[in-house]
Design goal:
Layout (H helix, E strand, L loop, with lengths): L1 E2 L10 E6 L3 E3 L3 E7 L6 E7 L8 H6 L4 E7 L7 E14 L4 E7 L3 H4 L12 H11 L3 E4 L8 E3 L2 E3 L12 H12 L1 E6 L2 E6 L8 E4 L5 E6 L7 E9 L4 E8 L15 E6 L5 H17 L2 E8 L10 E4 L8 E12 L3 E10 L2
Parallel strand pairs: 1-14, 9-13, 14-20, 16-18
Antiparallel strand pairs: 2-3, 2-6, 4-5, 4-21, 5-8, 6-7, 7-8, 10-11, 12-13, 15-19, 16-17, 19-22, 20-21, 21-22
């Protein structure tokens, strides 16, 4: 998939916002924000409240619940595509200038706002994800794993060992903790939650060409240019021995930018970990640190095909930045003067 500015292609983007499945809103401006993983997508809308246009100020003021669905189409012959759907968190009414400002999150909001009632004893990650999604009325697409979640305590495996103070953790906290522990992405599209292995450099990328962008910023963190080394230490009570694992930019298979510098060194601890658990954590931390070494941010005409579920490959800058990235965030804006544009932030995919 590629993106380019073709002068022969006429675009007439259309935006549509639906309130509670039945009320079509007249939108003055809008913004949606999608994160790669672990965070809720969000939206902001400005809608008119003048007489005869949409809801009146009295109706907005008394509204008890608002579920908003935002859709976009790039031309009149193209059907509308969903960008984000979720309940409104706040409505700010401006009666003098005649508009209302709506702000909300996608359907992960109910998981973020509710605490987990269980430590999910002796359950696999897939079973935990399914149970949480069922409680919130969501469909789950889960990549199964064989083992129980957490580590063994007194003969039982519980997610308490994953999320400290689980009784105070939200359902979303539990999902994110599971995802980070396994190296999985957690995100919602519509009414479906995805729990699957994180994207890798071997996945099919989306191509973005530097010459077609409105603006491009390329950032390199020089202290990380020599790579990094991560060491995880633990005491395993079952083995009665200490456990140590180390990962660096070379051994973990990530990109290396060594130019003679000494690699940055990081130390961490993981209670009661096995050798494989300590090694897996060291590798994940090393990869996350190395991802900060290079990042890009660019602006371009809005395009609904670009998504956070595939790698992104920059082409045409003719620099070392023409590599593969993982998208951190896509911010799409609809404004009367600027039209439909989007800003994308991405970090090195390691």
């Amino acid at each position: 998939m590629s993106f380019s500015l073709d002068p022969a292609t006429a675009r007439t983007p259309r935006l549509r916002a639906i309130l509670n499945d039945d009320t079509l809103l007249a939108v003055q401006s809008a913004q949606t924000t999608h994160h790669g993983s672990y965070s809720a997508a969000s939206y902001n809308l400005v809608v008119p409240i003048s007489e005869g246009v949409g809801l009146s100020k009295a109706e907005w003021a008394s509204l008890g619940q608002a579920r908003v669905r935002i859709q976009v189409s790039l031309n009149p012959n193209q059907p509308f595509t969903d960008l984000v759907e979720g309940y409104c968190d706040k409505i700010q009414i401006h009666p003098v200038i005649g508009c209302a400002h709506l702000a909300g999150r996608d359907l992960s909001a109910s998981m973020i706002d509710n605490k987990s009632p269980s430590d999910y004893q002796n359950q696999s990650p897939a079973e935990i994800v399914q149970a949480i999604c069922q409680r919130h009325g969501l469909t789950a697409v889960v990549t199964a794993t064989a083992s129980f979640a957490g580590r063994c305590y007194a003969g039982n495996s519980t997610v308490v060992s994953l999320a400290q103070y689980t009784a105070l953790s939200s359902d979303w906290d539990v999902l994110v903790c599971l995802g980070q522990t396994l190296g999985f992405d957690v995100f919602i599209v519509g009414h479906t939650l995805y729990f699957r292995p994180s994207i890798s450099v071997s996945d099919t990328p989306q191509y973005v060409y530097a010459g077609s962008l409105v603006d491009l910023s390329m950032l390199r963190m020089l202290p990380l240019s020599g790579g990094s080394t991560v060491t995880i230490s633990s005491w395993n009570s079952a083995l009665g021995a200490s456990v140590t694992a180390t990962a660096n930019s070379d051994s973990s298979g990530t990109a290396s930018y060594s130019d003679g510098k000494i690699a940055a060194s990081y130390l961490g601890m993981l209670p009661n970990a096995s050798v494989s658990e300590a090694q897996a954590l060291a590798s994940r931390v090393a990869q996350s640190i190395n991802a900060e070494a290079m990042s890009i941010e660019f602006s371009m005409p809005g395009d609904i095909s670009l998504n956070t579920m595939q790698p992104l490959r920059l082409c045409g800058s003719n620099t070392a930045f023409d590599v593969t990235y993982k998208i951190d965030c896509i911010v799409r804006k609809f404004r009367p003067r600027s039209g439909f544009v989007q800003t994308v932030r991405a970090k090195l995919l390691t």
